[in-house]
């Protein structure tokens, strides 16, 4: 299992690296033949029996965030329900906060605690929020999908589609002044189409009449710290839209 996890983790890192290079305009990369041969040897894994889930319609008339959270906790609309430890509906200020941050989905720490962005990426996000002059409690933090995808893989399109009604209703109830989409997957869920985050970051979009700013996901910034300055530039645009300035650094 450790070998399998390492293998698929490596593939995921390569995929994200290639996506970044594509967004930067790179059209050709030299790859050592030995690397290709090693990647071709996929480890043998135990055959997993297809999981059965019970799909039920998600109400569109939730009146409170608590009601949404309760419904999420019992949701079995996709196979993510079979491997989760806890659902992660989101948390923070639910009455017209200045900012709502939206990521792609929970990771291992989030799955264990039932809270969004509490791992290493979450710690960086919290620093970003504090640099903007806010606390976690003053903003709302959520994800496109509310259960952890196995091995932290990207949520499948059908998984996002099943979970998006929850997010749509959350946004309608919360009514943030600005939404910040963290990473390409979050923006894909919000816009309903594939996107290249390097191309669209820092450019204002709109979701349900609310201004939407795309920027890099904190986990990407941990892998490539040189992009932190770009993310900070995006967040300063958000502050400007709110007629605010970053507080002095301590």
Automatic annotation (TrEMBL):
SUPFAM superfamilies: Uracil-DNA glycosylase-like (SSF52141). Its EC number is 3.2.2.27. Keywords: 4Fe-4S, DNA damage, DNA repair, Glycosidase, Hydrolase, Iron, Iron-sulfur, Metal-binding. InterPro entries: UDG_Type-4/5, Ura-DNA_glyco_family4, Uracil-DNA_glycosylase-like, Uracil-DNA_glycosylase-like_sf. It comes from the Bacteria. Residues 89-236 form the Uracil-DNA glycosylase-like domain. One of its GO terms (molecular function) is uracil DNA N-glycosylase activity. Belongs to the uracil-DNA glycosylase (UDG) superfamily. Type 4 (UDGa) family. Transmembrane segments: none annotated. NCBIfam families: UDG_fam4 (TIGR00758). This is Type-4 uracil-DNA glycosylase. Pfam families: UDG (PF03167). It catalyses: Hydrolyzes single-stranded DNA or mismatched double-stranded DNA and polynucleotides, releasing free uracil.
């Amino acid at each position: 299992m450790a070998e399998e996890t390492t293998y698929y983790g490596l593939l995921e890192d390569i995929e994200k690296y290639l996506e970044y290079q594509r967004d930067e305009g790179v059209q050709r990369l030299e790859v050592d033949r030995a690397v290709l041969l090693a990647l071709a040897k996929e480890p043998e894994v135990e055959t997993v029996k297809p999981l059965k889930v019970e799909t039920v319609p998600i109400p569109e008339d939730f009146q409170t965030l608590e009601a949404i959270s309760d419904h999420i906790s019992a949701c079995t609309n996709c196979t993510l329900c079979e491997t989760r430890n806890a659902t992660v509906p989101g948390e923070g200020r639910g009455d017209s906060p200045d900012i709502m941050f939206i990521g792609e989905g929970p990771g291992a720490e989030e799955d264990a605690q039932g809270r969004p962005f509490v791992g290493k990426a979450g710690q960086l996000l919290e620093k970003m929020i504090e640099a903007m002059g806010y606390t976690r409690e003053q903003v709302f933090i959520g994800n496109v999908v509310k259960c952890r995808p196995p091995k932290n893989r990207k949520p499948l399109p059908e998984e996002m589609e099943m979970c998006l009604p929850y997010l749509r209703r959350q946004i309608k109830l919360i009514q943030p002044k600005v939404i910040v989409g963290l990473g390409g997957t979050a923006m894909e869920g919000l816009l309903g189409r594939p996107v290249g985050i390097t191309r669209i970051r820092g450019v204002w979009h709109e979701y349900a009449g609310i201004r939407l700013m795309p920027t890099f996901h904190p986990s990407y910034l941990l892998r490539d710290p040189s992009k932190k300055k770009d993310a900070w530039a995006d967040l300063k645009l958000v502050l400007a839209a709110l007629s605010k300035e970053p507080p002095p650094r301590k």
